[in-house]
Amino acid sequence: MLMNISWYGSEAQDTQIKGFVDVLTTYQDDKLSFGLGEQDLFITSELTDRITFLGESVFKFGMSPTSFNVSIERIVLKYNFKGNHNILIGKHHTPLNYWNDTYHHGRVFFPTIYRPLLFSSNVIPLHTTGIGVQGENLGKLKLGYDVMAGNGIGSSDISDNDKYKSLTAALHIKPFEKWRVGGSVYYDKISPGFITHHGSADTVDFVITQLIYSGSLSYFGKRFELLTEGSLVTNSMDSIGTTTSVAFYGYGGIKFAKKFTGYARYDLINFDTNEIYFDNDNKMTVLAGIRFQVNYLVVVKLEYQYDESDRNGINNMVTGQVAIGF
Amino acid sequence: MLAVITSLILFFAGFHGFAQDQNLSVISNTKGVPDDMKMEDLRSVLKGEKQRWGDGTKVVVALMKTNTPAGSSTLKKIYGMTSDELNKYWLALVFQGKAKAPAFFNSAAELQVFVEQTPGAIGIVDSPGSGNHKKITIDGKKTF
Question: Which residues in chain B touch residue A80, judged by CB atoms under 8 angstroms apart?
Answer without folding.
Answer: 51-52, 58
